[in-house]
Design goal:
- The chain has 238 residues and is α/β, with parallel strands linked by helices.
- The chain has a single domain, classed as Vaccinia Virus protein VP39 (Rossmann fold), CATH 3.40.50.150.
- It has eight helices and seven strands; from the N terminus they run αβαβαβαβαβαβααβ.
- Strands 3-2-1-4-5-7-6 form a seven-stranded mixed sheet, with helices on both faces.
- Strand 1, helix 2 and strand 2 form a beta-alpha-beta unit.
- The radius of gyration is 17 Å and the shape is globular.
Length: 238
């Protein structure tokens, strides 16, 4: 099997347990009440998803994060950029529920309602969005799938980078990060093979130091505390 399996693109691919431990009664209620209003409804096959239709108010631009984990990075960005509409994808309920709780608390007290969520296979969203519709994209610290036979499951691959290149207009950014050395090499190989993106690094500091406008996540902080070295990749659409 090659490192990227062609047949994978035609079906949903979600691995592992989606639910995890039971939620507290409060979180369960918040999740049940709020997720439906925050959820992204995908169009039928070959349909196009207009991100503007997901929000009650006009947005200056739309950013998307694939695999947001517990949503810490996504939520911080949304708080700092209330004029941006955020599309977040995460298939696993514990992380989605945590983000939903934060959104519910913020919106209930008059805060901006600028995050929408897809709890499904990220590729479904990437395929459904129209060309040049996402001004900035993120895939940060994704599951590395370390076993050789599982590496075709990695969410950073030639197909998804091609999708991002279609979605992100020239001059705008895609941001990737990982703390796993093998995945760092994998990401770089695929980045350099996609001619529609320029890697913005000029010195090693550029990929070893988190940019100032890049909120740190709990996972990232734990990785650093454990002695792992995150690599941060900023790519500009050409």
């Amino acid at each position: 099997m090659s490192d990227e399996e062609p047949a994978a693109a035609s079906r949903r691919l979600i691995y592992g347990r989606r639910r995890g431990r039971k939620f507290s009664p409060t979180r369960e209620t918040t999740f049940a009440d709020w997720l439906p209003r925050l959820s992204i409804a995908l169009p039928s096959a070959d349909g196009v998803l207009d991100p503007a239709a997901l929000f009650a108010q006009p947005m200056k631009a739309y950013w998307a994060e694939v695999g947001f984990g517990d949503g810490q990075h996504l939520f911080a960005l949304a708080q700092a950029n209330p004029e941006i509409g955020f599309l977040g994808v995460e298939p696993y309920e514990p992380g989605v529920a945590k983000l939903v709780s934060h959104i519910a608390a913020r919106v209930s007290t008059g805060g901006p309602d600028n995050i929408r969520i897809l709890m499904d296979d990220a590729r479904l969203l990437l395929k459904a969005l129209p060309d040049n519709s996402i001004a900035r994209g993120f895939t940060l610290f994704p599951d590395p799938w370390p076993k050789k036979r599982h590496q075709w499951r990695r969410i950073v691959n030639a197909d998804t980078l091609s999708d991002w290149a279609r979605l992100i207009p020239p001059g705008h950014e895609l941001r990737l990060a990982t703390d796993v050395p093998d995945y760092q090499r994998w990401m770089l190989r695929h980045i350099l093979a996609e001619p529609r993106f320029d890697w913005l690094a000029e010195t090693s500091r550029d990929w070893l130091q988190r940019p100032a406008d890049w909120p740190a996540s709990k996972y990232e902080q734990k990785a650093i505390a454990a002695g792992r070295t995150p690599h941060y990749y900023r790519l500009r659409r050409v």
